[in-house]
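So, can you check this record?

>
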Amino acid sequence: MGRFLDLTLAGLTTGAVYAAVALALVLIWRSTRIVNFAQGGMLMVTTFLAHTVAGSGGSYWLALLVAVLSGLVLGAVVERVLMRPVERRPPLDAVVVTFGLLVLLQGVAGMVFGGTPRSYPPGFDITGFRVAGHQLLFSPNDLWVVLVVLGVMAVLAFVFRRTSLGLRMRSAAFAPEVARLLGVRVGRMLTVGWALAAVVGAVAGVLIAPATFVSPTAFDATLVFGFTAAVIGGLDSPPGAVVGGVLLGAVLSYVSGYLGPDVVTFAALVVLIFVLMVRPNGLFGRGAERRV
């Protein structure tokens, strides 16, 4: 029973990390209808900048602030410089651009920061809580990660459902021509969407970094699992991203604990295929309306 509880708590923490990345992907999709495969590279760059601040004597919170601000600028620049020229082209062109951006960011990071993995300091104690004499695999830092992800999900859900900004962002993504006729500045909304998604990704990078080493390719696997979580939950749903991340984290934790880490990737593929067979639009996704 103790082993099952430890695996569950470990899966909750890992799932929260996947959910954070999934939230960034969902935000991009909801505001631009683009799957940003460069998200891992973008959060890697902002995490490196935060690591530089922390390594120079700055506090954890100052490093987090630097990551957020650099993510805001990076997201806006990427949309203006790289994504705007392919805005009216077929969607595949934008996907190719994001793949190219990922390779570019990893190459530049390798030249600037080097390829040696670096450790990142956690924000809180990483010693697990003790309950009834048992040391849990769940620490104050893990609790911080879970609470931040839940908070980000709540903020995103509120923005998209309850604010005029969210309404304008959705209209710019789904019906840009109609939105322009209604006075919505579509270009500005796309820039805001990319900037906000980069901010969420930057926060995710700082949350992930203490559990792994920071290097140009350190977040590739996290991006893959985050994308899987987003698809499982539904690319249109912030709560779905969180549920998908936690579900995937729990399943992979059980698989790793009972069957071994070698089959974790295969288990993620099985979960993804099963969910898509049962719910093609994800657990919280909305099916497309059929027109006759």
In short: The two ends are 54 Å apart (CA to CA). The CA atoms of residues 128 and 135 lie 6 Å apart.
